[in-house]
């Protein structure tokens, strides 16, 4: 683990970040003396979820399921928890967030950790080369997953590929924040590429969180700020993790992104470019923000109905605030702490 310099912030918290699972991992604690221990716990927990649930590691438990050719696979308790969450989210979002999109992602060209994909101005192809040929394939659907949590056994039909990217990172943030607070006793904020979980007492009663899809710059001073006392907040974006591909059958080169619509096997339409949601857990917040991208302009009414505070940026740059999300640009004396409800 190669950490950035450790920083003590104006609110008395301390922060550090490092690269992990293809993104930026950040931890902030209310006691600067505990920062090194907190960073070590976060690194360990991220490694554990990566070994259990990564689609890009041949030695992961998820890879064993995907390679089992339809046979049942016994898995460890951590992947059991991750799968239970993924299937619950699929149910609660009516299949908008579906763990069986792995095959569709591979067919669209995302077949390795994004940090290893060559980039051409962020488009995912090396300079001077033609984009790869890609295609849309049918997403089998989460009900095809046979899962016995008590027996810790999983089976997917031959050819079905699981991908837990829409839930496992947020679950890892929740798990790490809870563990750091339980083991060290301090307040903590964990940020895994925009999936943010808070646990324990917050500095001054609330964490100041900048809303951005620039995962390498979570402290971007230009980004709007919201106050969060506890729970989770997550942002999903169609503006990051992009690449180009020649899409069959026309072989027309087009921009692709990482949020796949299970109903089409293609990247979701980018009516909404950035959705940020607050919820009791980061897992719930991320499920809602991802599903909102899939739903497009139907999302604001859906989030309002669920009483989930959200900030939505449309393709045209319009900002829509839902369920009490505060206005941008308020000063320190007028910031509101964003509330949260449950995804159900």
Overview of this protein structure:
This protein has two domains: about 5-50 and about 170-240 and about 270-320, T-fold (Roll), CATH 3.10.520; about 55-165, ApbE-like superfamily (T-fold, Orthogonal Bundle), CATH 1.10.3980.10. The model has no long low-confidence stretch (mean pLDDT about 90). By secondary structure, it is α+β, with helices and mostly antiparallel strands. Helix content is about 25%, strand content about 25%. The chain has helices spanning about 35-55, 60-65, 75-90, 100-105, 170-185, 280-295, 300-305, and strands at about 5-10, 15-20, 25-30, 75, 135, 145-150, 155, 190, 195-200, 205-210, 225-230, 230-235, 240-245, 250-255, 260, 265, 270-280, 310-315, 320. Strand 6 and strand 7 form a beta hairpin. Helix 1 (about 35-55) runs antiparallel to helix 5 (about 170-185) and helix 5 (about 170-185) packs antiparallel against helix 6 (about 280-295). The chain is built from seven helices and 19 strands. The strands form five sheets. A nine-stranded antiparallel sheet has the order 1-2-3-8-9-12-17-18-19.
